[in-house]
Design brief:
Layout (H helix, E strand, L loop, with lengths): L1 H41 L1 E11 L9 E8 L2 E7 L17 E7 L2 E7 H6 L4 H37 L1
Antiparallel strand pairs: 1-2, 1-4, 2-3, 4-5
Helix pairs in contact: 1-3
């Protein structure tokens, strides 16, 4: 009887976690789509110049460059890849290259590079797929900790007997 209740409990928790992560994914999709649409309609075009490389070697992250652009005598930054695919991102000799970015005049912190704008928003399915992956990882971790706690309790009971 205990195993049926446990299975029911895990199923309900799985459904709740998946629904929560799906709502988060859906919210993020619509927020990103709105940002892309707003920048396409109202974005101001400017150039940004690279000031630093971010190679991230051995960290599992993609290499990028930090670009700086100025709006109303204030500096802003964007971390992205160069527009020229022939450019070695980690080569410090080529720092100073420029990319085209678009930003919102009301908030210059909201920006996209021309490459990002051309690629567009990821599909809504990818957001839902990501939410399912996150819920699976969360549940695997949660079940793993509960199972190890259960095993520890069983050992303690055997020692007490």
């Amino acid at each position: 009887m205990l195993s049926k209740n446990l299975l029911l409990f895990v199923t309900v928790v799985s459904i709740i976690v998946t629904v929560i992560f799906s709502f988060i994914g859906n919210f993020n999709y619509h927020k990103t789509a709105h940002t892309y649409q707003t920048i396409k309609q109202q974005g101001i075009r400017t150039s940004a110049y690279s000031i630093k490389t971010r190679c991230n070697k051995g960290r599992g992250l993609s290499a990028t460059r930090l670009y700086r652009y100025v709006v109303n005598q204030k500096q802003y930054f964007i971390d992205t890849v160069p527009e020229d695919p022939r450019l070695d991102i980690c080569d410090k000799q080529s720092l100073g290259d420029s990319i085209t970015i678009y930003y919102l005049p009301s908030n210059p912190n909201i920006k996209l590079s021309e490459t990002q704008l051309q690629q567009g928003v990821s599909s809504q399915i990818s957001y839902y797929f990501s939410s399912i992956i996150f819920s699976i990882v969360f549940l695997a971790y949660w079940i793993g900790t509960k199972y190890s706690s259960y095993k520890e309790c069983q050992k303690t009971r055997l020692i007490e007997k």
